[in-house]
Design a protein that fits this description.
mainly beta; six-stranded antiparallel barrel; two-stranded antiparallel ribbon
């Protein structure tokens, strides 16, 4: 499900977005990350999940398979389980999660903190896109694109799928990302 239509005003000093909502978005704002009761998701859940405005605190390349030229790509994220709208404003149900893409190859990572002269902080995803790729031998995989909305950048790679699991407890708060004291060691 697509996120609601709204504009975002970013502050480099705090690295947190201040939401400016249109009237239409405020009336239609609702939960768009499905399966709130779940603690684990996989590639089959892609269509019902959203990573809009999810903050990435770290990434690792692990379990390198030299014979195939692939590895696991693990992102340490603050996953937004739910967007809540009330008379007093917007709040978010956020939990620390591990998002792991399997058998990754062709990784391209672009991130520019220098151009906007931004302070170092977690970067924020605009979402996650995928495209099915069929190779000449008949093998299929996905081409993944993770556009980064702050600061500018993107992550692009091929992978047959992902697994995501919560590694922290959900917290309802005004911010889209967790503070260091709320994050556990993932």
């Amino acid at each position: 499900m697509a996120p609601p239509n709204y504009s975002v005003k970013w502050t480099a000093a705090t690295c947190h977005g201040n939401l400016t909502l249109t009237v239409a978005a405020a009336t239609h704002l609702k939960r768009y990350a499905a399966m709130n009761a779940s603690q684990e998701w996989s590639t089959q859940d892609f269509e019902v999940m959203s990573w809009h405005d999810v903050h990435v605190h770290g990434f690792r390349i692990v379990d390198c398979d030299e014979a195939n030229g692939t590895a696991e790509l693990v992102l340490d994220i603050d996953y937004i389980l739910e967007w809540l709208s009330s008379e007093v404003g917007i709040s978010f149900v956020v939990a620390q999660a591990s998002l792991q893409f399997h058998e990754v190859f062709g990784l391209k990572f672009t991130l520019d903190y220098a151009q906007p002269t931004a302070g170092m902080c977690a970067f924020s995803l605009a979402g996650i896109e995928r495209e099915l790729v069929t190779y000449p031998a008949g093998h299929t995989s996905y081409r993944w694109r993770l556009p980064i909305n702050w600061p500018a950048g993107e992550i692009v790679f091929s992978s047959p799928g992902f697994a995501q699991r919560l590694v922290g407890q959900p917290c309802t708060q005004a911010s889209q990302s967790l503070s260091p004291s709320q994050r556990s060691a993932a």
